[in-house]
Amino acid sequence: MTMRVLTAVLRTVRDSRRLATGLVILALMVLLALFSPLIVHAIGNGHDPLELAAYEKWLVPSGDHILGTDQFGRDVLAMVVSAMSVSLQIGAIAGVISTVVGVIVAFVAGYKGGWVDGVLSTFTGILLVIPTFPLLIALSAYAKNVSLFRVGVMISIFSWPFAAKTIRSQVLSLRSRPYVDLARVSKARDLEIIGTELLPNLLPFIGVGFASSALGAIFGLVGLEVIGLGPGGVIDLGQIIFNAINTGALTLGAWPMFVVPIVLLTLLFAALNMVNIGLEEVYNPRLRGVAGE
Amino acid sequence: MTATAPPAEAVEITAKSAARSGLRAWLSRHPLAAYALRRFGLYLVELWGALTVAFFFFRLIPGDPVRTLIQTLQQNYIYNQQASTEVIARYQHEFGLDGNIFTQYLKYMNKLILHGDLGPSLINYPTPAQNVILHSLPWTIGLLGISAVLAWVLGIIIGAVAGWRRGKAGSAIITNLSIALSHVPFFFVALILVYIFAYTLGMLPARSAYDSNISPGLSLDFIGSVLKYGLLPGLSIVVIGAFGWILSTRMLMVPVLGEDYLTYAEAKGLKPWRILTRYALRNCYLPQVTAFGISLGFIFNGNVLVEQLFNYPGLGTTLVTAIQQLDFNTILGVTDMAIFSVLTAVLLLDLLLPLLDPRVKYWK
Amino acid sequence: SGKGSYSDKPANKPAATKSVQIGKANIPTPRDQTVTIAQVEYTVFNSWNPFIPNGMAHAAGLETLAQEPMFLLNLATGELVNWLCTGYKYNDSFTELTFNFDPKAKWSDGQPLTSADFKFTVELLRDRKDLLGGGGDLSEFVKTVETPDPQTAVIKMTKATPRLHYGFIAAIAGPQYSVMPEHVWKGQDPTKYRANPPIASGPYVLKQAIQSQKMFVWERNPDYWNKDKLDPAPKYVIFQSTAKQLDSASLAFERAEFDVGSIDEQHAKQLRNTGYPSLVTTQFHDPNPRVFWLNNDPARGVMAEAKMHWAINYLIDREKIGNNIWPVKVPPAQYLWADYPSNDKWKNDELAAKYKFEFAPDKAVKLLDEIAPKGAGGKRMYQGKAISLEMITPSPVDGQEYAIGNLLKTELNKAGVPTTLRSLSGSVHDEKFQRGEYDIDSQWAGAAFDPEQMYTDWESSKAKKVGVNAVDKNKSRFRDPKMDELSAKLAQLDPTSAEAKPLLDQALEIYFQKLPLIPTIQTGYPSYFNTTFWTGWPTDDDLYQVPLNWWPHFVFVLGKLKATGQKGPA
Amino acid sequence: MSDDTVLEVAGLEVTYSTNRGDVKAVQDLDLSVRRGEILGIAGESGSGKSTLAVALLRLLKPPGRVTAGSVEFRPANRSPVDLLKVHGEQLRVLRWSALSYLPQGSMNSLNPVMRIQDQFRDVILEHAPERKEALSEMIPRLLGQVGLEPRVGRMYPHELSGGMKQRVLMAICVALEPDLVIADEPTTALDVTIQRVILQSLADLRRDFGVTLMVISHDMGVHAQLVDRVAVMYEGRLVEVGDVHQVFKDPRHDYTRQLIDSIPKLGRRPS
Amino acid sequence: MSVIELEGVEQRFHARGTPDGYLTALKDATFTLHSDPPQIVSLVGQSGSGKSTIARNILGLQKPTAGLIKYDGKDIFKLSRAENDNYRRNVQPVFQDPYSIFNPFYRVDRVLWKAVKKFNLTRDRAKGLAMIEESLNAVSLDPANVLGRYPHQLSGGQRQRIMLARIHMLRPEFVIADEPVSMLDAQIRKTFLDILLDFRRDHGMTTLFITHDLSTVYYLGGDVMVINKGSIVERGAVTSVMHEPSHPYTRLLLDSIPPPDPDQRWTNRIEVDDSGDQTPATAPQEPVV
Ligand SMILES: Nc1ncnc2c1ncn2[C@@H]1O[C@H](COP(=O)(O)OP(=O)(O)OP(=O)(O)O)[C@@H](O)[C@H]1O
Ligand SMILES: Nc1ncnc2c1ncn2[C@@H]1O[C@H](COP(=O)(O)OP(=O)(O)OP(=O)(O)O)[C@@H](O)[C@H]1O
Ligand SMILES: [Mg+2]
Ligand SMILES: [Mg+2]
C-alpha cells in the first residue's frame, strides 16, 4: 500500500511541472524552517539576535545585518527565518486538524447518508456561514498569549467545514461508482471501502483541503497579527509585517521589514496553490487524456 | 451490513403514499414549489442554528466586557477613576449580561426576532448596535461590495479566457501571476497604490470617503467625489480579489473544455468568443455564483486594514473598535447580520439557480 | 554595524527637501484659518455625556476647546491658574471648602455659569454611584453644597481632608469633575442623555461632527466670556482620525495636511535629517513613569522579600530602556512621579543617592544568593522550593511595556530566576492584577498631585488576600505598619505644609527600602507640530504649556498661534 | 478526379505522439466521396475511424496531428480547397455551411444550458445571417424533418432522450444544407429500436436534402441497411472500398470477411 | 445445487416529473435461476427498462421496495455473516461499464488479487499468481501485457476480459452479467460470449445475461426473458421466443435488428415513441431523503 501510494505520488509529480515546482519550493521552506534555530544561532554569533535591543534599532542592511534591524533592535533576517518556521507550523497544525476533522465528518456524512448526513451537513452549513473573522478576533483577544498549538486549534475550528463540504460531495459521487459495488460484492466492509476505495481517490481533494486550511490558517494568523492579536512569545511572518505597517517601514525605507516576509508568504501561498492546481490537473480524469475513446 | 444498500437509495413508498395528504399531493405535482418550501425550511433551520452558535460562542468566551470597558476608560481618559460595583452591575444589566446564560439567550433572541433589536452598543452607548452598524455599513457595502462585484466579474472573464487559451503563453502568465498574487494582502497593494498615486503623483486622495466640502446627498458632485475617493481602496481590493476568482474560474473552465459540446461548437464554426461565452463560460460559472453569495459574508468583516489605511468610515474599523472594547452587542450584531445576509443571499441564489441552469437538481 | 539607521539617511528622497509640498487637507473650512489635529479612531459622534461608557466623543476637542476647568495646573511650568474660579479656600479644620466663581463666566448658549451649576454637578455625582465618576471621593466626603450667592459654593464635608479640591483641577489631562450646565442637564436622565450639541463655556463651539469623515469641526465663539485672557487666532480647529498606518499618517504630516500629530519619532527624525523645514518637536513627559508593580504578598513566596525587589531593581537596565526601547531617548526614573517642576518638591536627593538605582547584575546575584541560593539541581531555592516568576503586562506584544518586561525577563533568567512574560488584554489583565495573581506587572503608575495619594492606597487595611479583588487600592499588597501610621497622619495634612515634609520623607524612605513598585523611565511623549500654516508652537526651549493636544491646557497653545499667511492648495 | 467527387483524400497519415512513441492511427489512406452518396466506413474498434473523421473535420486535438497527405474538398458553388491547409476564418466559414458533423456522443454534444432552438439559431445566424427572418419557420420544419415536434425547440437537452438528441443533432447538421455530413457512430449509444428509426431518418435526409453522407460504424448491419458504398479500415489503413452489395457478397479482403462473419446471425425467417 | 428465486420484486425510486413523485423501475419480477444444470438466462430490454435494477437487486446492492429475493430459500437481505459470505462467493457480477469498474488509483491486478485474498483461494503468493495467470490466459489475455498496468492503459475489451478472468478464478455458481459486451465491438464481443459459454460448459456456471442486443441473446441460446418498462413481458427458450414472439414488444425488438445483408433492406418503417425516456442513464436521480 505504501509503495503504491509512493509510486502514485511519483507518477503524479512527474505528470505536472507545476506540482513539482510547488513541492520543491515547499520542501525548501520546510528545510529552512527545520534549520532555523541553527541559522538564527549563526546570525547571532554568540548573542541572541532576537533579543530586544540586541543591536541598535532601525539599522540599514549591511554586512552584519543583511536585512537590517527592527524598531527594537532585533536582526530582521533572524526574525524572518524563525518566523518562517512558526508560520509553517501554524499552517501544518491547523491544516492537519481541520483536514482530519473535515475528512471524518465528510466520510461519515457522505457514506452513511440519511439523517446522519442531514444533521452533519446542516451543522457544517451553519458553521460555514458564521463569519470567522469576528469570532477569531474575539477568541484571540482572550487567548492572546496562548501557545501556537492552541491558536492552530482555534483556527481549525472554523476551517474544517470547508474541507468537510467539498469532500462530502466527492464521497457522494464516488460511493455510487461501480468499483465500490465491486468491492461490496467482494466482501469488503464499509470501513475498508472507505479506506481503500474512496480515500485514495479523494487524496487530491484532501490535499486541496489541507492546503487551503493551511493557507487559511497562515493568512488568518496574519490577519490577527495585523490587528494586534496573536500568539505571544513567538514571532511569525504576520507579526513582522504588522510591525512594518505599524511603524511605517515603507516610508522609512526599511523595505526588508515588509518585502521579505511578504515575498516569503507569497511564495508559500504560490507553492501551496501550485500543489493544489497540480494535483487537481493530474487527478482530473478528463484532463488525463485516455487514449482512444 | 455488507449486503445492505446505502439506506438513502430506496424509499418506503407504501406507507408514504397512504399518508399522502392533499398538500403533499399538490407539492409533488409542483416540484418547484416543494423545492422552494423545503429550501426555505432549511434556511430557517440554518439561520436559527447559526445565530444560536454565534450567541453562545461569544457568551462563553471568558472575560467581562463591562469591567474591561471601565478599565479602558480609566487608562485612557479618566485617570485614577475607580469603577464602583454599582456602575458595573448597572451595565451588566443594560447589556443583557446578567442572569444565567439561557435566560440571556432567550431575551436576546426575543428582542432580535421580534424587534430587530441587537441591544445597546458599547462603543457608542446607548445607541442601539443596529444603528451603529447601519451607519458604517453603507460605506463598506459601497466600497467592498462594488469592488467585490468588479473583482468577481473581472476574475470570471479573465479566468475564463485563461482557461480557454490554456497552453498559450499569455494564459500561463496570468495563471502563474494569479497563483502568486491571489494571497498578497490587500493592504500591501493599497499601501503601494497610496504611495504612488496619492503621494508621489498626487493624483488621487489618500484618505476619507469623500471631499468634506461637499455635503452628502444624491448630488452628482457627491457621487463623483465618493467614486474618486473610493478609487484607490477599491482598486487594491479589485486587483487582488480578481486574482482569486481568476484561479477558481480557470479551474472550473478546464474540465468543461473537454466536453463534447465544445468540440461540437467548434465544428459548427462558431466564433471563438461566442463559444467561450455561450458554451464554455455558461456551463461553468454557476458554482461561482454560489461562491460569490458566500463571499458576500466577508463584506461584513470589513477589510479592516484597507479601511484603516484610507481612514474609511466602514464597518471594518467599527468592528475592530467593537472587538477591542468587547462590545458584544455590536460584534454579535455584525456576525448576525453577516449570517442573515449570507444565508439569504444563498437562499435567493439557490431559488434562482434552476432558472439560470436548467440542469440544477432542485428536487434534492 | 555603524552603517547608521534608516532615518539617518534620506530614504528615496533627494538629500534636502527645502520646501514643503503642501497636500490638500480634506477639510470643509479654509485651510489658512484652521488648525488640524490628528487624533485617535473615533466611534462616538452624537453624544457628549461623560457619565456613561463611551457616552462622549473623547479627544475630539470638547475637553480641549470647550469644557473649561475651574483651575489649571500647568505641569510644564508648575503654575496653578485660576480659570472658571477666582480661588478656593479650606477652613482650618479642612472640613469646609469654598470656591469662588468668576462672575463673567457664561455658557456658550449665553446663560451665566454659576455656583448653582457647580452644586448641581457635585450633588449629581455624589448621589449617582451608577454614573461614571459618580460616588468615590464625593460620596465619601461631601455632606452638602451651599450656594450663598451665584459666585460662591461651599462644600460641607463629612470628614476632614485637605485634598478634595484636587478633583477640580486640570492637572493631568482634564479635571476629575467638570462643571455641567444645570439648565441643560436638569430633568434629563443622566444615564441616557446625549447632551448633543455640547454646551460648555470654552472659546470654541462645535460646528459639525462629520461621522463619515471621522472629523469634528470647532468654530471660535465670538461671544467667549474670557476673551481678555484668551483669544485664539485660528477660527477653526479640526480634530480628525488619522490613518492608523504610520506610512500614510506621516506622509500626511509631511504634506502639512495636519498641523498637530500624525507622525512618530522615526519619521520625524527622518524629516529632520532630510532638511524638512517646518517640523517642531516638543518633548514632554507623561505624568506616569513606566513602572514594574511587584507583588508583596507572602503568598507569592520570594517576591514578598524586599531583597528580591532590590535584586530586580539591579537587573533593570534603565540606560538601555531609555535609549533603545523607548521610541525617544528618555531619562531613567527613580521616583513614582514625572519629572515636572511642580513635582520637585516631593523629591529627596539625599535619599535617592542613598538608595541608588543602577544596573548591577552582580549585586542582584549577590542578593539572590542570600535569599534564594542555588540548590542541588542548580536551581535557586526559596523555602525548599525552586523559584520562578510570573510577569504580566497589559501592553500588546509589540508594545513598549512588553518590550521593557521582556528585557527584565531576559536578565532575570540570566540571573537564574526563571521568568515568564504574558501580555494580557483588558479585563483578563485587570482581573489578574486586581486579584494579585502575578509577581511582576510591567505597566505604569504615578502620583498626580502628591505622594500621599499613593501611600494611602498602600495601607495594610487595603491589602486583600491574593485571589480577592483589591478594588483598585492596594494591588501590590504592600503591608507596613510604619507606612500605615504615616499615611494616616498625612491624610489630615496639607502636603505642602511644613509638618508634612518630614513625614513624606520618612514614607519615601520606607518606599525606597521596600520598593513595592519600581519606576524605570520617564515616559517621553514628544509632540510634533507643523509650522507651514501656524507658528508659535511650544518648543523645548520655550515650553510655555503642556503640548499635548488632548489636555485642556492645549487651548493656551492655540491662544499663542499666529498664522503664517500660507494659503492652502485650491 | 471526376466532377461528382466531393472529397478526395490522398495519402493521409495521422500520428498520435504518446509517451511510448508515435502511433500512426491513420496511414496512407486514399479515399474519395462522391456527391450524393452515403459512404460507410467500417472497421473494428481502434482501427482509426474516428481519427479519420476528426482529421477531415480539422478537429484533431494534440497529441494527434496530420503528418502527411491532402484532403481536397469541393463544395458546390465554391472553389475547391485543401481542407488540411485552410485556417482560421476561412475554415470557420467553411464549417457547417459546407461541411458538418454528426458526432458520436449525442449525449453530450448539445450545450446543456441552451434551449434546442437557440442551438439552431446560433449556427444559422453565424453562417447565414440573412435567414434571420425565416428562423421561426425553419426550426420547426427542420425538427419535423427528423420526426420531432416543434415543442422540442423550446426544451433543454436534458429533457430529451438519447434518440431525440441524436435526431436534433441531425436536424442541426442539415440546417444549412452542407455538401458533406460526417456522421461518427450515429447510433452506437442507442437501442436497436431507436437505431432503426435513426437509420430511417438518415436515409430520408439524403432523399430530401441530397446531402452527401459519410457514416462511420463498426456495426456491419448498419452498413448493410444504409450505405451505398462501404470502406473498411484495419489498423489505420483502408483495406477495401466498394459497393455495399459487392463487399458483403464477395469481400476481397480477409479482414472484411472476418468482420462480416463475426456478426451473430439471427436464424429467423425474414418477416 | 443452489437456487436464486425472485418473488414479486418491485423497485421504486423517487423521481421528479412523474405524477405521483416516484418511478417504478421494476414491477413484480418473479423468476428462478438454477445452478444445476448450469443454464444461461438472458434478459433483454430497452435502455431504462429495469435490467440493471434486477442485477443490483440480486447482487444485494439495492434492497427492493417490495418482494423477496431468496438464495436457497433464505432472504438474501437477512443472511447471517457466514451465509452472506457463501452467497457472495457464489453470486458474482460482471458489470456494464468497463471503464468505471476499475478504481483508477490502482493497477488492474488488484481486482484479481482482491478476489484471491477475500475469497481465500490461496494463501500462497506464487500460487495466487499462477491462478491469476491461468485465468488471464483463459480469457485470452497475455498476463505479461496486462499485469502491472493501470486501467486507463487498457482497452475496454481488455478490461472487460479481466472481469471475466476474475469470474474464471472465482468460479461462482451464478454470474450476473450486466451488459458486459455492449461497449465492445463485434469481434471481441464474440470472443467474450464464447468464453462465457465455455465457463458454463467447463465450470458449470449459471449466467444471468443482461443485454439490449438480441443477436447476442441468439448467439448464447438458453432461455430469455424480455423486459419492457419494468415488467417481464415474455419468457421462454431463445429459439421459440425468437421465432414466435408472442409479445408485440418482442416483435418490435426483433424487427429493429439491422440484417447484415444489403439485399435485405427494410422496406417498411417503424415508429417508436422515445420521448418518454427522459432520464439519461448517465445521471441517476437521487432518492429524496
Ligand atoms: N489521444 C490519443 N492519443 C494516443 N492515441 C490515440 C488517441 N486517440 C486515439 N488514439 C489511437 O488511435 C487509434 C485509432 O483510434 P480511433 O478513436 O480513431 O478508433 P475508432 O476506429 O474510432 O474506434 P472506436 O470504434 O472504438 O471508436 C487507436 O489505436 C487509438 O488508441
Ligand atoms: N438509483 C436510482 N434512482 C432513481 N432512479 C433510478 C435509479 N436507478 C435506476 N433508476 C431508474 O430506473 C429505471 C430503470 O433503470 P435501469 O438502470 O435498471 O435500466 P436498464 O434497463 O439497465 O437501462 P440501460 O440499458 O440504460 O442500462 C430508469 O428509468 C432509471 O432512470
Ligand atoms: Mg470512434
Ligand atoms: Mg443498465
Automatic annotation (TrEMBL), chain A:
<feature type="transmembrane region" description="Helical">
    <location>
        <begin position="86"/>
        <end position="111"/>
    </location>
</feature>
<dbReference type="InterPro" id="IPR000515">
    <property type="entry name" value="MetI-like"/>
</dbReference>
<feature type="transmembrane region" description="Helical">
    <location>
        <begin position="202"/>
        <end position="224"/>
    </location>
</feature>
<comment type="similarity">
    <text>Belongs to the binding-protein-dependent transport system permease family.</text>
</comment>
<dbReference type="GO" id="GO:0055085">
    <property type="term" value="P:transmembrane transport"/>
</dbReference>
<keyword id="KW-1133">Transmembrane helix</keyword>
<feature type="transmembrane region" description="Helical">
    <location>
        <begin position="148"/>
        <end position="167"/>
    </location>
</feature>
<keyword id="KW-0812">Transmembrane</keyword>
<feature type="transmembrane region" description="Helical">
    <location>
        <begin position="258"/>
        <end position="279"/>
    </location>
</feature>
<keyword id="KW-0472">Membrane</keyword>
<feature type="transmembrane region" description="Helical">
    <location>
        <begin position="118"/>
        <end position="142"/>
    </location>
</feature>
<dbReference type="Pfam" id="PF00528">
    <property type="entry name" value="BPD_transp_1"/>
</dbReference>
From TrEMBL, chain B:
<feature type="transmembrane region" description="Helical">
    <location>
        <begin position="284"/>
        <end position="306"/>
    </location>
</feature>
<dbReference type="GO" id="GO:0005886">
    <property type="term" value="C:plasma membrane"/>
</dbReference>
<keyword id="KW-0472">Membrane</keyword>
<feature type="transmembrane region" description="Helical">
    <location>
        <begin position="184"/>
        <end position="206"/>
    </location>
</feature>
<keyword id="KW-0812">Transmembrane</keyword>
<dbReference type="GO" id="GO:0055085">
    <property type="term" value="P:transmembrane transport"/>
</dbReference>
<keyword id="KW-1133">Transmembrane helix</keyword>
<keyword id="KW-0813">Transport</keyword>
<dbReference type="InterPro" id="IPR000515">
    <property type="entry name" value="MetI-like"/>
</dbReference>
<feature type="transmembrane region" description="Helical">
    <location>
        <begin position="226"/>
        <end position="247"/>
    </location>
</feature>
<keyword id="KW-1003">Cell membrane</keyword>
<comment type="similarity">
    <text>Belongs to the binding-protein-dependent transport system permease family.</text>
</comment>
UniProtKB/TrEMBL annotation, chain D:
<dbReference type="Pfam" id="PF08352">
    <property type="entry name" value="oligo_HPY"/>
</dbReference>
<dbReference type="GO" id="GO:0005524">
    <property type="term" value="F:ATP binding"/>
</dbReference>
<feature type="domain" description="ABC transporter">
    <location>
        <begin position="9"/>
        <end position="260"/>
    </location>
</feature>
<dbReference type="InterPro" id="IPR003439">
    <property type="entry name" value="ABC_transporter-like_ATP-bd"/>
</dbReference>
<dbReference type="InterPro" id="IPR017871">
    <property type="entry name" value="ABC_transporter-like_CS"/>
</dbReference>
<keyword id="KW-0813">Transport</keyword>
<dbReference type="GO" id="GO:0016887">
    <property type="term" value="F:ATP hydrolysis activity"/>
</dbReference>
<keyword id="KW-0547">Nucleotide-binding</keyword>
<dbReference type="InterPro" id="IPR003593">
    <property type="entry name" value="AAA+_ATPase"/>
</dbReference>
<keyword id="KW-0067">ATP-binding</keyword>
<dbReference type="Pfam" id="PF00005">
    <property type="entry name" value="ABC_tran"/>
</dbReference>
<protein>
    <submittedName>
        <fullName>ABC transporter ATP-binding protein</fullName>
    </submittedName>
</protein>
Automatic annotation (TrEMBL), chain E:
<dbReference type="InterPro" id="IPR027417">
    <property type="entry name" value="P-loop_NTPase"/>
</dbReference>
<keyword id="KW-0547">Nucleotide-binding</keyword>
<feature type="region of interest" description="Disordered">
    <location>
        <begin position="255"/>
        <end position="289"/>
    </location>
</feature>
<protein>
    <submittedName>
        <fullName>ABC transporter ATP-binding protein</fullName>
    </submittedName>
</protein>
<dbReference type="InterPro" id="IPR003593">
    <property type="entry name" value="AAA+_ATPase"/>
</dbReference>
<dbReference type="GO" id="GO:0016887">
    <property type="term" value="F:ATP hydrolysis activity"/>
</dbReference>
<feature type="domain" description="ABC transporter">
    <location>
        <begin position="4"/>
        <end position="254"/>
    </location>
</feature>
<feature type="compositionally biased region" description="Basic and acidic residues">
    <location>
        <begin position="262"/>
        <end position="272"/>
    </location>
</feature>
<dbReference type="GO" id="GO:0005524">
    <property type="term" value="F:ATP binding"/>
</dbReference>
<dbReference type="GO" id="GO:0015833">
    <property type="term" value="P:peptide transport"/>
</dbReference>
<dbReference type="InterPro" id="IPR013563">
    <property type="entry name" value="Oligopep_ABC_C"/>
</dbReference>
<dbReference type="Pfam" id="PF08352">
    <property type="entry name" value="oligo_HPY"/>
</dbReference>
